[in-house]
# Entry
Amino acid sequence: MKYQTIAGLLTLTLLYGCSSSDKVVPDVPPSQLYSESQESLQSGNWQTAIKKLEALDSRYPFGAYSKQVQLNLIYAYYKSDDYAMALATSQRFVRLNPTHPQIDWVLYMRGLIYMAQDRNFVQEFVGMDRSDRDPEPAKSAFADFKKLLKRYPNSLYAKDAKKRMESLKHRIADYDLATADFYLRRKAYIAAINRAQEIQKTYPDTQAARKSIPIELKAYQALGLKKPIERTKKLMELNPVK
# Structure
């Protein structure tokens, strides 16, 4: 008797779950479901849009709306701060549709997603400078924007991508500067010199490049290398920190 009661409750629970799901995303024609998802997107109701788009994606993976549904999902996931799903969906789209006419937009969005992952809202809110945090998302964003500019120089998104690359360049250079300073403080002088010189070579027009020269000088002084010390002093004079 007890087994029957538990089984009955389980059945009711499953039925209720299915019923709730059906209420959220009813079994309607794809054209209607797509239209409803568009309305949700336009009104900024991201979670509702995602549920409807996911239903379309799973029910009609090869339907007339399939590619646009995936593009809309990338945007909806991004706007709802679900960066993991936004990234996975954009990567899948690029892999399956390498020649799609909106690939430039997907690359642009993927760059934005990586930038969002790199951002630390708590640190920004309290004004903390954490240039030492992992720069991999920033590097990935930079790579996607660079790919966009190379492949689609006339894209509508090229101008903004270029501006964002400039910001990302300084972000990555600042991380390398923090790393060079860390090596110096740990008395890993050769590593500090190598990282400083890499900054100067790769990001010569950044403040980080100028700030890396004193680090290089201190490392040479610690090693007692006279000629590199004199050369680096001259380099500092030509590139003062602004």
About this structure: The mean pLDDT is 87. Residues 112 and 141 are 7 Å apart (CA to CA).
